[in-house]
Design a protein that fits this description.
Order of helices and strands of chain A: HHH
Order of helices and strands of chain B: HHHHHHEEEEHEEEEHEEHHHHH
Shape of chain A: globular
Oligomer: heterodimer
Number of strands of chain A: 0
Helix content of chain B: 40-55%
Strand content of chain B: 5-15%
Distance between the termini of chain B: 28 Å
Largest interface: A-B, 25 and 28 residues
Low-confidence stretches of chain A: none
Radius of gyration of chain A: 12 Å
Low-confidence stretches of chain B: none
Mean pLDDT of chain A: 82
Largest sheet of chain A: none
Radius of gyration of chain B: 21 Å
Chain lengths: 91, 381
């Protein structure tokens, strides 16, 4: 599964509240729309670190990096060493 | 996972216990009555370098790992009967963690040495009259004007607040945004125009700990005193809570161990109807529960410290740690008063003080109810 889809799947299954739609395109503003709140971002960061073996700390911990599926995808790719491909497949 | 302590960590733990018994063995009662802070004890802790433990040596710290810092707080909670002093010290360290993790090089060089030396008292101001556990619904506002922020609002129950020289203030910088992105941290110093501190609030426990209100009336804070980036406040808050919910429970676990030892000793000595009271199951069960909770608490506490030492995230573990140990301590104190009977209820035996102190541990740093909410959210519920 491509990286972006993995991220999208996590947000839809773990962070989208009950009764909300599951359609989540790349540019939906996750924080402004309330999908990711102050608790949700803890879960998201933990997921990204665990699943993609990246370390997120200090100056990377800014809301802009988690604004949408697209920005999260770009951020994970940028943090990955060696650089991860967008089509990275996980188990 | 192996939680075996190194010889150095064991030795340090014993050293802090010895230090506490020799240097912090003052009678807490007069301080409780006067509400004064034990300054001499604070200075001794500073001389012992307890405040600078986890910070890099280049900023005046000791460069110790987090588990060693946790062990120190546990040792203090065990051997020092003044939980207010221990809490004040933990707050100092937690403020330093925020500066060390998110501060600019300039902020770290300016503030950390004075923090480590205990020369200046640090506080973090989050809670407001209208927002407790829902901390991020704060209303204190920091408006950017040219090269400074104009701070307006008030904070309450702030630990170390009435005696603080430096305060890390969380405030709204963009009310249009949700909490994520709309809150920032500013470092305010005593003496800045528009900044005022109240006298300490009276509490049922932790009486030597100074808690109070802080007022900001068009307080001008230079933009260089922004901690982290603008809008990073909620994330700094979350990050700091992971450390806080490991460090404060460390002291609580130490106190739980002391309460257990006191209760066990009394249950073996005190007789009723021709037998030691410990031989009655109703009494023994209280003590075995303390022992079980002590061992389980140690497991989750060390796991949290280990995760943080490995630069791992631990929000779930820290919430479990905080919830479990604080509730275990409170129950242990209730049971200890009960099994000591009339003596437990008398101030002279100092058991009732532990109970009064322990109740606060289930309230500050997020109530037990909030910890359940956090754990549920992090489980995807």
């Amino acid at each position: 599964m491509p990286l972006k889809e993995k991220i999208r799947q996590f947000i839809v299954s773990e962070l989208v509240g009950n009764g909300q739609g599951t359609e989540l395109n790349d540019s939906v503003l996750l924080i402004d729309s309330g999908i990711i709140d102050s608790l949700g971002i803890m879960a998201l960061i933990g997921y990204l670190e665990e699943k993609f073996s990246i370390e997120i700390a200090g100056e990377d911990l800014i809301p802009e990096n988690f604004a949408s599926v697209a920005t999260i995808n770009d951020f994970v790719l940028q943090k990955s060493t060696p650089p991860m491909r967008a089509t990275w497949t996980l188990n | 996972m192996d939680f075996e302590l190194t010889d150095e960590q064991k030795l340090w733990q014993e050293t802090v216990i010895k230090f506490s018994r020799e240097q912090l063995a003052y009678d807490v009662t007069p301080y409780e009555q006067s509400g004064e802070f034990p300054w001499e004890a604070w200075r001794k802790c500073a001389d012992m370098q307890l405040m600078g433990l986890p910070f890099p040596e280049e900023y005046g710290g000791c460069g110790a790992d987090f588990l060693t810092t946790v062990l120190s707080l546990k040792a203090l909670g065990y051997a020092c009967k003044d939980a207010g002093l221990v809490h004040a010290l933990a707050t100092q360290i937690l403020c330093g963690q925020q500066i060390n993790l998110f501060g600019s090089e300039e902020l770290k060089r300016h503030f950390l040495p004075m923090l480590c030396r205990g020369e200046k008292i640090f506080a973090q101001a989050i809670t407001e009259p209208g927002s407790g556990s829902d901390a991020l619904s704060m209303r204190t506002r920091a408006e950017k004007q040219l090269d400074q922020y104009i701070l307006n609002g008030s904070k309450t129950f702030i630990t170390n607040g009435p005696m603080a020289d430096v305060v890390i203030v969380f405030a709204q910088t963009d009310p249009q945004k949700k909490t994520l992105g709309g809150i920032s941290c500013l470092i305010v110093e005593d003496g800045m125009a528009g900044f005022q501190k109240s006298t300490p609030l009276k509490k049922m426990g932790l009486t030597t700990l100074q808690n109070g209100e802080l007022f900001f009336d068009s307080c001008m804070v230079p933009q260089e005193r922004l901690l982290g980036k603008e809008g990073q406040g909620a994330i700094i808050f979350n990050e700091s809570m992971e450390w806080e919910r490991s460090l404060l429970p460390a002291a609580h676990l130490g106190t739980l161990e002391r309460v257990l030892e006191t209760s066990l000793s009394y249950a073996k000595e005190r007789s009723a109807f021709g037998k030691n009271i410990g031989s009655y199951q109703a009494v023994a069960n209280k003590i075995t529960s303390m022992k079980i909770n002590l061992e389980l608490g140690r497991g989750i506490l060390f796991r949290c410290a280990n995760l943080k030492d490995r630069r791992k995230r631990a929000p779930l573990e820290a919430s479990i740690c905080k919830l479990f140990i604080s509730e275990s301590l409170k129950q242990a104190c209730i049971d200890s008063v009960q099994l000591h009977g009339g003596y437990g209820y008398m101030c002279e035996y100092e058991i009732e003080r532990d109970l009064r102190d322990s109740i606060a541990s289930t309230i500050y740093s997020g109530t037990s109810e909030l910890q359940h909410n956090i754990i549920a959210r992090l489980m995807g519920l």
